[in-house]
Automatic annotation (TrEMBL), chains A, B, C, D:
Residues 164-284 form the 3-hydroxyisobutyrate dehydrogenase-like NAD-binding domain. InterPro entries: 3-OH-isobutyrate_DH-rel_CS, 6-PGluconate_DH-like_C_sf, 6PGD_dom2, 6PGDH_NADP-bd, HIBADH-like_NADP-bd, HIBADH-related, NAD(P)-bd_dom_sf. Residues 2-161 form the 6-phosphogluconate dehydrogenase NADP-binding domain. GO terms for molecular function: NAD binding; NADP binding; oxidoreductase activity, acting on the CH-OH group of donors, NAD or NADP as acceptor. It holds the Pfam family NAD_binding_2. Signal peptide: none annotated. Keywords: NAD, Oxidoreductase. This is 4-hydroxybutyrate dehydrogenase / sulfolactaldehyde 3-reductase. The active site is at K170.
Length: 295, 295, 295, 295
């Protein structure tokens, strides 16, 4: 395919290179002339602007740092949409705010172009090897048509089913993994501070929800099917968190996430959930977040 | 074996029943006469006090709500240690503060008795089925000698290697799983609030550290071997958390753990770790918790 | 003076009315024609756009919900700057992100116009009565020239001394008062949950830093002059927070701010500040926030 | 009066000295013989145990680090109550957990002795000068009878009206002032990070609830009389917190309390309070903490 590629950073550059290797004809744009040169050496045509980059292509791909830059590259005075041929695809692979993505997508669709949000997972190493995870905000048919592109850049494409879901699942997934990283560090440093070898603790935790998570262990049999009868009661979980926090404070391991969690369980107890299953924390958070508009 | 069992609550009762089923001779004590009756019906001898319970046994087991109750049951005026035969084991299976466990253990050891902390994992259903996870604060030889007891109550015994480590790993494991539960709820409710089907998100997350955790994915190849070179930089992780938090605040999904996490990453950036791998958060928390005693 | 006023919301409308009452000639613009009508009834001239509004005036004032709207109103295709007479003032009284304010200001200054950020404090009631607090990002001479306007809208103008400081102090002040409100609620609800009459507690707290704050009590004699010798040690403060948190968790009063504070003190202890004065928390936070760029 | 004084630490020692200066006859006990010697030099009689210390006195005062030490000193085998003359007062001036204080008090009262919790406010400097704030958990008549003691140690005695309220108000007051200290540091460091001179910001904040607190400013006219009509809406406060947090994260000033506060406002918005007055945060926290026992 003929592809315009805007944004040749740490991720964009290897992605574009893999498209060239895959046999696609690329026209590339980036503010950094060095980045452009590297791609030109590999066979790409240089573009002088996003508009120039989108001329005569079948798809334009953006891989940029934030929503306002994506907006400018596509919808600005000199943006891709000013020259993009009718029927060509707009594929934004950047990680941006989902509502900004929605707004950009709607504007592009109003101009008559099909838009797909397709942010990527994994690391720059994966980008180099063409083994990214692609989270396509599109249905099966659309993904099938774009597979020649996606398959050059990634080794797995998730079909989320609808426009906007790619960027949504990206943000939720990153939120969870990034925050979990900080929580894991609190647990690990607590281990070290109480002279418990980390490997010993990891060995145990890998066999429990501590290491395996709750999505496929404690939740499916209980809260996800509406059963809140206790296997482990919220009030006991709350008690154990209190012990862990007191311990951590004695050995001066600050645990801000752990401390926040204790207060969530405390609120769940106040809300009458003390004797419900601990998976009912999901139900509790749902209640807290549920918009009530008359008070 | 002849066993004294103190504490016949939701967990203690099925554990004691399984010891009887396993052929052990039990003398039992609990403040609730109903609980005692149930065990007596199953063949146990009733005791009038912890002291009475520990008379003539080879091991006394406690399964009680907190450290001061354990202390009283073992070391009080009418406690088990007043009558326990020389050489008999003291096994505390309760979940209590590790430092309280240490203090009780040391006092008991000073009186010449061997002490093992052996708290249990899993749920009351597992207790009924004799399928608990037993976290033995003991070495291999000790666990081998107590296996006839442990194997009646649990289906798996972790040998942590030293006294005090059973209760330590219990508290760390519970901390991690309980706090992770609250964090998972934040991610799940965010999904729902932005019209992203939870199953769709879970499908993706089960293939990433969001669902698989960091202990066996991102940490071993990087921070655990001292390599902080980036596959995904802390400053990008920080940026993504900011997007998720802004999104969550727009759709009024309160995320106290997520908000705390963002500030941890912010502190890591301030500490000069912005361009390190995200697994370096472990190193950051280690630094924050490291005692410096001269300032 | 001849003034263009853009943004006639809950605050902007009474502010504009007070300018008219003060004898100024107003041209006004708002997307709501109702809001415009109200001002026209009071003597203002209606404008069809921000550009129209800024025609022929000595100063244009914006009072708008966020930075991108302010940017559009001033610097957009149809923005005030397209028609503003040379030498006229641009005064943004909105509460927006300080860095957005800076960027807008710089662009405006590059076009040759003087810019003042002058956000307001207090409430809509004060706006009606012309008793706002005006936080002028300007020097004394500039404020003197704009006093005829400011004095119609407010009863007090703070001269912060330089462009950008008005909006900065607004954000810091609002941050502090808004977060303090939530912290105060935690303390008050804890009172109620432990049967301590709130008035009784308030009576005590109004005589201590709990009610009077630290800025003028504990800080000036210690941390603000570099003296960290203890009047009340951080490790005792940390201990007391622990008691309060345990108490609150027992009576299920969730205290997320309190819990976060305990971890801050824990980190300060880890950093070797346990025996420093509690005002040294300022020094601790400074250290945590200090950018270190080599790690 | 003849007084037994147990606990001669940083606070207890100057308090005991001031009692001697005030003409009282002291018998003193502490584990540190140095501390005892200092008091003996000043005219006190040394005691060999708490029991010895309480012999023949009209009041026994405890000033000790935590509840279990207070319990042991008063109710232990060698505790003060074993020798205390009938009718003598027990006055605990320590800062301990209120529920531990209650339990100790009840046990003492069951033995027929009057108990007063009278923890102190202010610093060790104030203790030296006899200028402590005494928070007496007692009614007016009791305080009048004990005034000869209190007036030697403190310059102000708050009569809270009932046993248990002294220690309660102490804990609430300390919670509020200690957490507020950490919050104030976040605001101050944010100032410094955005090049806003701290004095400039303090000048402004001392005139607003940021510096004056909410107890006597925004609350009395609104939430404390049940009026939630807005002077400043929760949703605007939430928006401003978001700006402050984004700003702080950009300049890497970690603000864990601020971040927690933003989520509280988010929850309040979800609960339908977005258009209520910001003082309604008190009402929101009340609702979250209100025990609901059927779910």
């Amino acid at each position: 395919m003929r592809v315009g590629f805007v944004g040749l950073g740490q991720m964009g550059k290897p992605m574009a290179l893999n498209l060239i290797k895959g046999g696609h004809q690329l026209r590339v744009f980036d503010l950094s002339t060095n980045a452009v040169s590297a791609l030109v050496d590999a066979g790409a045509a240089p573009a002088s602007s996003p508009a120039d980059c989108a001329r005569d292509v079948e798809a334009v791909i953006t891989m940029l740092p934030n929503g306002s830059i994506v907006r400018k590259a596509l919808l600005g005075d000199d943006g891709g949409l000013t020259s993009l041929p009718k029927g060509a695809w707009v594929i934004d692979m950047s990680t941006i705010h989902p509502f900004e993505s929605d707004a950009i997508a709607e504007e592009i669709e109003r101009k008559g172009f099909p838009f797909v949000d397709a942010p990527v997972g994994r690391t720059s190493d994966h980008a180099v090897r063409g083994e990214l995870l692609i989270l396509a905000g599109a249905d099966q048919a659309t993904v099938a048509r774009l597979a020649p592109l996606f398959d050059c850049m990634g080794s797995e494409t998730i079909v989320t089913g609808a426009r906007g879901r790619g960027i949504r699942v990206k943000i939720v997934n990153n939120f969870m993994s990034i925050a979990l990283n900080a929580l894991s560090a609190e647990a690990a440093v607590l281990c070290e501070a109480i002279d418990l070898p980390l490997e010993e603790a990891l060995k145990v935790m890998m066999g429990t929800p501590a290491g395996k998570g709750h999505f496929t262990t404690t939740w499916p049999g209980r809260v996800l099917k509406g059963d809140l009868s206790p296997t482990f009661m919220i009030e006991l979980a709350h008690k154990d968190l209190g012990i862990a926090l007191d311990l951590a404070n004695q050995v001066t391991v600050p645990m801000p996430l752990g401390a926040a969690a204790r207060e969530v369980y405390s609120a769940a107890r106040a809300a009458g959930r003390g004797r419900q299953d601990w998976s009912a924390i999901l139900e509790h958070v749902r209640t807290v977040a549920a918009r009530t508009d008359t008070k």
